[in-house]
Amino acid sequence: MSFLVFLLIGFAGGLLGGMGMGGGTVLIPLLTIFCGVEQRAAQGVCLLAFLPASALALSVHAKNGLIDAKGVWPVALAALIFSVLFSLIAVGIRGETLRRAFGLFLLALSAVELSRTLREGGRLTPLPGVRK
Fold this sequence. Notes:
single chain; 0% strand; 5 helices; 76% helix; mainly alpha
């Protein structure tokens, strides 16, 4: 796989991660589908790539007053505990099972977001160039 492909995938993940949207939801599927990276390795790359990216994004969001200090510690503590717990569990699960579980998670997330958009009166518009 060429360096340019990995660079573009990193760009897409960093773009979403910088906006606080969870770049891993893009980075992991792109690495596994387009680059043939095994699921566990893609998850590891994602975690490693977002250490510096999240530190930079955090400083920008903090500087702009976009962080609720009261909510940080409970969320961070729970995330830390469950990240360690489920990382230990994931080590014992086959890569294929992890890939399917992540795919189901993405489908469920998409369904929730679609439902919320429709409930809030949002309209779904076709992509440019797509005829009805």
